[in-house]
Amino acid sequence: MSKNTKFLLISLPASISPTNSHDEALTALRSAVTTDYGTVFPFAIPEFKIGTLDALVQQADELAKLEAGCEAVAGKVGDSLKTILEGDEGKIAQQKTVNDKPAEQYLKSFHWNKVKYRADKPLGEIIETLQKEITSIDNQVKEKYSSYNQVKTNLTTLQRKQTGNLSNKSLSNIVPPSLIIQDSDYLETHLIAVPKQITKDFLRSYETLTPMVVPRSAVQVAADDEFTLYAVTTFKKHSHDFIHKCRESKWTPRDFKYKEGGKEEENKELERVGKEEKKVWGEALRLGRTAWGESVMAWVHVLALRVFVETVLRYGLPLNFVCGLVRTTPKLAKKARSSLDASYSYLGGNAFGRDKKGRVTKDDSSTSAEMQAAGHMGDGGEYSLYVCYEFEIQ
Asked: 70, 186, 252, 334: which could join 299 in a potential S-S bond, CB 3.0 to 4.6 Å?
C-alpha cells in the first residue's frame, strides 16, 4: 500500500439525510468530503449485542488499547518481512495481503468475518477473542523470527570462517599437521596472525616477549592481504603469558587444535546450517505473510468495533447510522476533516462554544475532560463532532 494513503473511518447518524435513508446519508457524506479531498466507500458494520452504559464506556477504553496493540503487531510483522526480504519493497508488497487481497482492496470491500468473530456473541467475548488472537500472532512471530535470526547468525559465523582473513578464518585447511607439536609434556605451538605492516617488529621481538620462547621457532605458515600467520613454539608453563603479551602487541593468537578430518567436518557443518537457514527462512516468510494479513484483519475489525461502540455512546439508541471509509492522503485528511466539521458542526449541539461565524471552537478543556471521562474522545485525545478514526496501513 502506498505510504501516501490515509483512511478515515466515519460514522454519522442517518438523520443527516431528510429521509433517514442510509443510501442518501452515504451520498451526503460523499458530498461533504468532496472528491477533492478523498473517495468515500461504504463500510458495513453489523449490530452487536449491547450491554450497560458502564460496560460500553469500559469497552471503548479496551478497544482503544487493543487497536494500538494491533497496529504495533502489524508494524512489527512488517519490519520482520522487511528484514527477511532485505528491504526489497516489491517483494514485501507481494507478501502484504489480507485474505489474498491487497490491504486497500480488503478495506474497500470489507465484510465482518462472522466465522472468526461471531457477531451474535456479546461484545465482551468478541473483544476477548481479538485480544487472544493478536497476542498469539505476536508470540508466534517473535518465536519464529528469533529462531531464524539464530540460524542466520550461525551461518554468518561459519561463512566468515571460510572467507575472512587470517585473524578470524578457519585454519583447518591452511595449517599442515606437521607444524603443530602434539603430545608433548613441555612444548606447545602457537599460531599468531600478525598485521603485515608490523611483521618486522614481530620477528625482531617475539623471542624476548616472555621467558622460554624457543629461539628461531617462528615459521611463516600463510599470508593474505592483511595478515601473516606464524607458528611459534614456547614452553607450556609460559604459554598463557606469551598469548597475553601477543595481544598487547596487537598480534592475534589463533586458537587451533589439529583434528583429523577437520576440514571435511567444517564443510559438512556449513552445508547443514546453510540448508537449515533456507528452510527456516521459508517458514519465517510464510508465517510473516500470514501473520501480517491476520494482524491487519484483526486491526480493521477492532476499528469497526470502536466505531460501533462510539456510535452507540455518541448517537444513542435506537441505532440508525451510516459508516463510510474515506480514502485520502495525510495532507488532504485535515481538509477533509475541516469540510466534515463545517457540514456537521450541529451534531456537537451546545457542547462547545462557537466563534462569530458559527464555527465550533475546540479548545474548551473542561468539556474535553468530561468527554474523555465519558469515553467520547477520538484519536489524538481531541473530541470530534462525529465518530471518526484515522489510520494508515504501511
From this structure: 70
Instruction: Tell me the per-residue pLDDT of 57-86, one tens digit each, with 9 for 90 and over.
Output: 999 999 999 999 999 999 999 999 999 999
Torsion of CA 278, 283, 287, 288, to 10 degrees: 0
8 Å CB contact between 9 and 307: yes
Q: How many CB atoms lie within 10 A of CB 211?
A: 11
The rounded Cα 309 to chain-centroid distance in angstroms is 29
The model's pLDDT over 173-187, given as tens digits with 9 standing for 90+, comes to 889 988 999 889 999
DSSP string, 351-390: SS-B-TTSPBP---HHHHHHHHHTT---GGG---SSEEEE
Answer yes or no: is pLDDT of 322 > 60: yes
Residues whose CB falls within 8 Å of the CB of residue 123, separated by 6 or more in sequence, listed in order: 48, 49, 50, 51, 55, 56, 59, 305, 309
Half-sphere exposure of 154 (CA within 13 A, CB side): 18
Q: What is the 8-class DSSP label of residue 218?
A: -
Rg (CA), the chain: 34
